[in-house]
Here is the input.
Amino acid sequence: NAGVTQTPKFQVLKTGQSMTLQCAQDMNHNSMYWYRQDPGMGLRLIYYSASEGTTDKGEVPNGYNVSRLNKREFSLRLESAAPSQTSVYFCASARGEGNTIYFGEGSWLTVV
Amino acid sequence: GENVEQHPSTLSVQEGDSAVIKCTYSDSASNYFPWYKQELGKRPQLIIDIRSNVGEKKDQRIAVTLNKTAKHFSLHITETQPEDSAVYFCAAASGGSYIPTFGRGTSLIVHP
Here is the structure.
């Protein structure tokens, strides 16, 4: 049982480049999330998808877009990367409202 | 919206001592309180959680207490070991919410 799988694990981008972080879960969870983690800032929610077919902005959505491709997959896209987007990105999933969130292993992104 | 405050930001103890991390929350509708442990370079992982109909929950050396009247909950680790060294996050969520609110984390250092 893989849980939440995200790719790539490491990526270096140049300013202005675009990329997509992929995430898939095999737990039949309804809700999926993208967080970023920066030193001293904890976990900040970028976007979430409460259920298949819906997406909503979180605390820090600017510069990002998401796609809930199906129940398993939830991707995060950076259209024009900026150095301020250098961070560790975590995808996560949960069965539904008020339930435990399970995290992927993280994606380390550096924008130069 | 919900606001979760977590203290202290750093906690240093000697091996064998107890460690206590405290969180306060603002939304009286919150009824689910998970705690996550994040080792260096790893994903946050759930270590214990409590729901509002329970005042205390224990799992071996770890316990969580909840005071709904005062809107605070705490993580207690007894007989600390070097492998307990990590960042610990508290979170709060209401039953109707898809989005738990995380505290900013506590870096626990256990000295051998």
